[in-house]
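Write out this protein's structure.
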Amino acid sequence: MAKQKPHVNLIFVGHVDHGKSTTVGRLMYDAGIIDEQALRKLKEEAQKVGKAGFEFAFVMDELREERERGVTIDLSHKKFNTNKFEYTIIDAPGHKDFVKNMITGASQADAGFLVVAASEGIMAQTKEHAWLCITFGVKQLGVLVNKMDSINYDESKFNKVKEEVTKLLRSAGYRQEDIPFIPISAWKGDNVVKKSENMTWYKGPTLIEQLDMFKEPEKPTQLPLRLPIQDVYNITGIGVVPVGRVETGIMKIGDKVIVVPAREGAGVTGEVKTIEMHHEQVQQAEPGDNIGFNVRGINKKDIARGDVLGHVDNVPTVVKEFTAQIVVLNHPTVITTGYTPVFHVHTAQVACQFMEIQKKLDPATGQTREENPDFIKTGDAAIVKLKPTKPLVIEKQKEIPHMARFAIRDAGTTVAAGMCIDYVKK
């Protein structure tokens, strides 16, 4: 079997209408992933709904409603191979209401492109998205300065945008030494797959060449084992088979493991007997692997979705309360102490109460704006103290970031997202 290419999740972010979807559509088309016929169909459809010129965006915006509004609503995923990697492209919405989907995207992205229109430069969401990319651990970033055709491919204007965006990323805390800036026109196809004839002054890589220049994401195998349980099945002849995805660490046959909080919060222990992936028995599982497994000594009634498995010598942390850094994305009124929405942490869904709002932060820089504010609202970032209504496993961002992130939902919408920065153990 041919060795699989390393897999990279790639996200496109940026302000609404700066051309993210068009960029992805152009990339797919010029790289031959979608053909002439498919594009022609999209072109006709674009004209039909009065959106001529939006056909590339339609490649990603497959939802009907999105086509008519001309905005990306949900995350769409597309597979894409380069010489070196297999990419899954996550096209994230830049539109304010849809920033919640962008969160789910960024928290699983290994690399990203921030798309900035050359004609407009930094806009509100450009700042927010840069900060969210940092908060959610998108390690490698490239900047696409799009719509170069609208400024006549002017090098000095490109340099001005580059300077502004570099300053923004540095102030938001981006540590990546050299962030590549690529001048493109997604609409005309300059520097996406084909080198531009209109910008001979630019000597760097095209977008597709940059994709092979990103580094392979490191699997967090050196971190402690953490496997959130997604489901628990009872299979005749085998017994109890929990299913889940390894987030960090390595699980091997014969390992002594513990699942917490489980059974009244005490946890249950056992020994790994078998591990199965894609219907094949394997000796070990690594981060990113979706597996089913069988543990001697664990019964179906002992464990449930939301419990987390780890090694007995490094038990997943069950908290009594925790401190988090959050961004309020979309709340109808204001958030005050006492508010108890549902937190989605790995596979767990647990209501947590806001005990204290310790400080309000500037969402563009993360600096403190106000100590102990009475409330926080949409657009605010804050440090808060929270109390889960039942035992919950969560880890610190500094220690096991993959297990620190969460979304806060209320009445069917995502109101906030954040990460745990400290806790009090149960």
